[in-house]
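Quick one before lunch.
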Amino acid sequence: MTDGKFDVLIVGAGVAGAAVARRLSRYRLDVAVLEKEVDVSFGVSKANSGIVHAGFHDVPETLKGKLCQTGNRMFSQLHEELDFPFERHGELMVAFDEDELRTLQTYHRRGLQNHVPFMEMLGPDRVLELEPNLNPDIVGALHAPTAGVVCPYEYCFALIGNAVKNGVKLFTSQKVTWIGRTDDGFRVETEAGLKFKTRFVVNAAGLHADEIAKLVGLTDFKIIPRKGEEYLLDRRVGSLVRKVLFPVPTPSSKGMLVIPTVDGPVMVGPTAENIDRRDDFSTTREGLKQVFAHAQRMVPAIRSSDAITSFVGLRPVATGDDFIIGPTKVPGFINVAGIQSPGLTASPAIAELVKDILLKEGLRLEENPAYDPRARDKFVKIRGLVEVRDFAALGQVVAADPDYGKLVCRCENVTEAEIRAAVRAGHHTLDGVKFATRAGTGRCQGGFCGSRVMRIIHEETGIPIEQISKKGPGSEITPIPLLKGGRR
Ligand SMILES: Cc1cc2nc3c(=O)[nH]c(=O)nc-3n(C[C@H](O)[C@H](O)[C@H](O)COP(=O)(O)OP(=O)(O)OC[C@H]3O[C@@H](n4cnc5c(N)ncnc54)[C@H](O)[C@@H]3O)c2cc1C
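Model of the flavin-adenine dinucleotide complex:
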């Protein structure tokens, strides 16, 4: 008994797996994605800085160096086709003394080797003109205008949504626990009992890629989680900066940054600390102190009291500190592992590389004439209309669907219609709806809208209220069953 026979089975629906799935959906292939979480982008891809780096950080001999700038370039077309939130604000790496200025020159040369366009070294006056809130003690900066900011989960949803519209099968809540070899490929089984056959396996399992590789006997790399704490500031603080601001990096990280997110609020972080556990998502007093000390050195007006929430992301760092992408000694088993930063940026280039590897390994790629690069479920977001005070357009939207007139999330201006659309698109947890609509990301962090979102999820899906969770089983919001009439 199998639940499906595929040409390519991708383990993991983060940005790497999703980008590969979409790339392969251009061909007449049977492709499936297996994801252990209840929704896509719930791994490393949901908790990062959201920067589309220009590509001057890593040396050109590494895959990180090679794929970052290529990925960055590919974002313009992806954005045009899939319409996820993305803007090219540029990035500035700032120096505070002569030593740091010399280091900036090294990064400038590295950027040129990586073919990063339009970079320039700027003196302090020009930098302060561009960013008036920067510390006036800076002595110069490296400017890379092609860097951008993206909403990482909306990007991931868009990739997978388009892949699914083009025929890819997505299986969520399916943790891969067993892979066996057959004459012409693999048998793959999940904890929930589904069984698949496939010619190729693409291992894009993020923090668990070494465990998936081990299932076919590959033990040549390990994943070491590198923890990063990030802090989001209140929207009311305003846009203190326009560009992503970097200090001069340390050997283990790009340093702690000040990031104008694509949705408006400023974010600061991340820390970088190698840890043992893959489930340690705790923020710390020490992390907070470090992040704000670094951020305030660059932008003195930043205050830790303006933080409205914090989160932790774990970078899946592989032995050797580079991406591990390629065929293995197990024919048909392709690793896409160790996708630490700049994996978000590199993801479209990773997908291109994986397509080439699969072709070389014998996969036939015949164009799918029905492929539509734009197809995906989309819905109007009224926040943009409210911000530009386009009440005429807003009136038309509400006239067409009165649920657009019912505000659910007051902090971020998200309406009932948007939440219903997100639930209908398959987001059945509070985090899924939050990532798809922004409901619950504002100052009150869901205190006001959380119960309303739960009610809408319940109405749309029939899931009992007590089974509605933050991010899947084990994170139910109201674990005690309600009596009729809502009483406990
Ligand atoms: C703090 C932080 C900041 C960062 N900032 C940036 C940035 O600004 N710019 C940038 O370019 N990059 C950044 N990165 C890196 C970027 O987030 C990652 O490179 C990228 O998200 C990795 O994507 P992925 O698809 O490989 O992994 P994931 O998103 O983790 O996807 C892997 C998926 O596999 C699933 N999975 C695991 N095991 C199994 C199994 N047994 N069966 C089925 N499914 C399984 C997981 O649930 C997960 O959804 C940052 C990372 C961190 C942690």
